[in-house]
Amino acid sequence: MPPSQIVPMLADEGIYIASESTFYRVLHKYDEQHHRGRSQEPVKRPISTHEATAPNQVYVWDITYLNGPIKGRHYYLYMISDIFSRKIVAWEVWEEESADHASELITKAVISEKLTTRNYPLVLHSDNGSPMKGATMLETLYALGITPSNSRPRVSNDNAYAESLFKTVKYRPNYQPKGFPTIEKARQWVYEFVQWYNFEHHHSGINFLTPVQRHSEDFGLDVLAKRKAVYEEAKQTNPQRWSRETRDWSISETVYLNPEKEEVEGKVEKVS
To answer: pLDDT tens digit string along 175-201?
Structure first.
C-alpha cells in the first residue's frame, strides 16, 4: 500500500511512526518508490525554450474563436506575432481551421517582413493543434528554412505571448462578444485592431513602446533615450520634487520564450 493509506490506517490503530512525506522520503532514499499499474509511466517532456535578441528571430502563433452571427457558428482568427517586439506580423480570419491556411499565413508573414532575400534563424512556436502540426504547414516551414517549435502536450501556458495577445483582442472596448454578422465584418474589425495594436498601443511588456517602434532598426532605443532626457531635464528644473533617480526607461536586450528560471532570473520581460 502507498503511504497515503498506511499513515491513516496506523492512526486508526493508535500508532504514529512518521508523516506521509517522511514515508515517501525514505522510500525514495532506498529506491523503493516506483510507478505501478498497467498504465504507462508519466513522461516528463522538455519545454521549448527560445530567446530573441532582435526582431524576426522568434515568432509565436495561435488560433482563436470569434463568435459568428448565430450561436454555435464561429470564425477563426489566425495571428502570428514577434516575441521581441510584440508586433503582429501576419493575421487572417477564416471560416475553418486548417494546415493549408496556416501555411498560407506564415508565407504571408515572411513576405511582409521581407525575409525571403536573406538567411535568418527564425523559430515559429505554436501549440499542438492539428493545423500547427499538419503536413502542409510543416512542409512550408522546412521550405522557408523556419524551425518549428511546439508546446508540451496538454500544457496551456507554453505559448503565453499568443494567449496574452488574444486576451488583448477580446478585451478591446469595441469587441463584438455577441458575434460578427459576417466574416467581412470580422476581418474589418481585426484589421482596425491590428493597426491600433502595432502603431498606437504602448505595450507594458516593452516599456510602453509601440510594437512598431520596438520592431524598427533602432529597437525603439531612440524613443526611450528621448524619454530619459525629458525626465532628466525635469529633475534639473525642479530638483526638490525628486527624492531618487528618474524613471527607468531601459529595456531588456533579450526576450525569452519559456525561459529556464535559474538562467534568466531577473532578466525576463513581462508578457502582458
So the answer is: 988 899 999 999 999 999 999 999 999
Distance CA 55, CA 253 (A): 11
Residue pLDDT, tens place only, 30-52:
988 877 766 676 666 666 788 99
Pairing outcome for strands 147-150 and 123-126:
parallel
In angstroms, the CA 91 to CA 77 distance is: 7
Which of these ranges, 22-36, 43-57, 92-106, 218-232, has the smallest mean pLDDT? Answer: 43-57
Q: How does strand 58-67 pair with strand 50-52?
A: unpaired
135-144 and 99-112 helices cross at what angle (nearest 10)? 20
- List the alpha helices (DSSP H) in the chain: 3-12, 20-29, 99-112, 130-133, 135-144, 160-170, 183-199, 211-215, 221-237, 261-264
Residue 206 amino acid letter: I
CATH 3.30.420.10 fits 46-272, yes or no: yes
Sketch the domain layout of the chain as residue ranges: 1-33, 46-272
Among 43, 42, 6, 37, residue whose Cα is nearest residue 21:
6
Rounded-to-integer distance, Cα 3 and Cα 155, Å: 29
Angle between helices 160-170 and 183-199 (to 10 degrees): 110
Closest CA to 98 of 146, 70, 130: 130
133, pLDDT greater than 60: yes
Instruction: Work out the percent of the chain whose per-residue pLDDT is above 70.
Output: 86
Adjacent-strand bridge partners of 77: 64, 93
The SS3 call for residue 176 is: coil
